[in-house]
């Protein structure tokens, strides 16, 4: 087979590169948000996994500490402004609160009312699930932890699946996250 080769001039190389860049840029603009979501959580998970080693208080202990501010309806460890934070949502007398529990001492560090936005929407849905639950979140988290073994409970978020309340419990074993769906009824 005889292949003819045509030398590419600098101009042709630049044009071909520019076309390739435009195609890559266009493809990136369509995949952009998905790509950002795919990268973001991995970085956040790595940061959270590294920070979790510093926690002296478990999520279950955080639930117990927050009970004086109402019924715990969800809880999670998160990295906020570069620092590990234990956040528990509670419900009391028709109102919702975010209780920040000190992850080193187990004392309540701050209580803020939840009055608007996505946080309020999530709190209402979590309360609806917990209203049908027969199992406390702390107990569900402990049971889920028993399935994996040597793991830390990172979060426990209730939801309704049909009419049945379940908790999505995220566990951290080493640097690996896993999620267990634990029935609350």
Summary keywords:
alpha+beta, 4 helices, globular, disordered N terminus
Description:
The protein is of the alpha+beta class. The protein has one domain. Helix 2 runs antiparallel to helix 4. The longest helix is centred in the N-terminal third of the chain and has 43 residues. The chain is globular.
Radius of gyration: 24 Å
State the domain count. Answer: 1
What's the total helix number?
Answer: 4
Overall geometric form = globular
Question: Which structural category fits the helices and strands?
Answer: alpha+beta
State the oligomer: single chain
Global mean pLDDT: 82
Largest sheet: 7 strands, antiparallel
Give the strand tally: 7
Query: What is the helix fraction of residues, given as a range?
Result: 40-55%
Uncertain stretches of 5 or more adjacent residues: 1-40
Beta-strand portion reads: 25-35%
| Beginning-to-end CA distance, first to last residue | 73 Å
Q: How do the SSEs run, as a string of H and E? A: HHEEEEHHEEE
In which order are the strands of the major sheet placed? 4-3-2-1-5-6-7
Organism: Bradyrhizobium centrolobii
Protein name: PepSY domain-containing protein
InterPro entries: TAT_signal (IPR006311)
């Amino acid at each position: 087979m005889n292949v003819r080769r045509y030398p590419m001039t600098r101009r042709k190389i630049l044009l071909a590169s520019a076309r390739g860049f435009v195609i890559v840029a266009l493809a990136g603009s369509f995949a952009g948000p998905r790509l950002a979501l795919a990268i973001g959580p991995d970085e956040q998970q790595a940061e959270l996994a590294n920070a979790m080693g510093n926690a002296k208080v478990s999520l279950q202990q955080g639930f117990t500490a927050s009970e004086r501010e109402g019924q715990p309806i969800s809880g999670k460890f998160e990295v906020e402004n570069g620092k590990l934070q234990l956040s528990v949502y509670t419900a009391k007398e028709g109102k919702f609160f975010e209780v920040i529990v000190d992850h080193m001492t187990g004392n309540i560090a701050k209580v803020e009312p939840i009055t608007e936005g996505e946080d309020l929407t999530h709190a209402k849905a979590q309360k609806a699930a917990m209203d049908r639950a027969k199992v406390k979140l702390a107990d569900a988290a402990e049971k889920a932890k028993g399935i994996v073994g040597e793991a830390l409970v990172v979060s426990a978020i209730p939801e309704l699946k049909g009419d049945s309340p379940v908790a999505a419990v995220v566990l951290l074993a080493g640097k690996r996250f896993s999620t267990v769906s634990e029935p609350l009824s």
